[in-house]
Amino acid sequence: MDVVMESRSGIGLPARVFLFLLRFWLRPLMRYAPFTPRVLRHAARMDTLTAVMLAPRGTVKVPVPFDGFPAEWVYGPGVSRRADGTGKVILYFHGGGFMVGGLRSHRRMIARLSAAAGVPALSVAYRQLPSTTLPGTVEDCVAAYRYLLDQGFAAEEIIIAGDSAGGFLTFAAPLQAIGEGLPAPGALVAISPLTDLDHAAKLAHPNLRIDPFIPGPRLPEMNTLLLGGAALDPLHSPVNGALAALPPTLIHCGSTEILRVDAELMAERLAAAGVPVTLVVWERQPHVFQIFADFCREGLVSLAELGAFIREVPAAAERAA
């Protein structure tokens, strides 16, 4: 099976200005901030500061407590609340390098995605560094998936989505869940996903120098923390997993970001495994530009496309017919 590859050209002036600011403000911060336990604990609290990123008017959020981490239902504007576990639903894993981000930082974007798809989203603030390592994070995400199944949602109507580190979990969680005997979800949506912890290809790619804010040379440093000092095993990376078991997938990324390498590799591996996959590359857009949609207006178009894909996922009744 071949990858369906599409490109989206054009970048507006607001996005160009925003890219300039990212390059000269956020990139130096991410390049030099030390990954010490103390700094990571402070980074984990940064989600509180993002409360200023208000969800669109009409958004409804409902807390969902898990053992060890919080989550919340997000009903975007126009999406009705449900009293039972029926119909399609998004299970969303936020990005942030397994160090930062949470319910507040991504609520605005997730609400927009929920509205575009016309379905609610369960946003999961899984445990991050330094409170756990990669296996613990993946376990939290599998627990959230199992929760939806226990609530009565049909597996084929659960669409797992995520960005960046959450994009990694978008693949890693269902692979582990399937390995534990759970059914596969109905579809996957990945935004600028990290998919390979072997960073050699990324460090040799031209995007290493032009990515607006991700400091590629620090990625191996993240591995050391994620794996608790253990040696890297190829199976730590979802790109090397049993991909044939995964459902149809849509991936969006920016053309100049370093994680374009991982998006392309995952798309190629999925197609080789016989999984229907579409990769959309957006001209000069930064990493997870959808979260910056108030500045990078192309992010709104991307979210609309992601929502349309989710709308097209067949309902359980349609599959049974």
UniProtKB/TrEMBL annotation:
The active site is at S164. It comes from the Bacteria. Residues 90-290 form the Alpha/beta hydrolase fold-3 domain. The keyword Signal does not apply. Keywords: Hydrolase. Gene3D superfamilies: alpha/beta hydrolase. Belongs to the 'GDXG' lipolytic enzyme family. This is Acetyl esterase/lipase. It comes from Actinocorallia herbida.
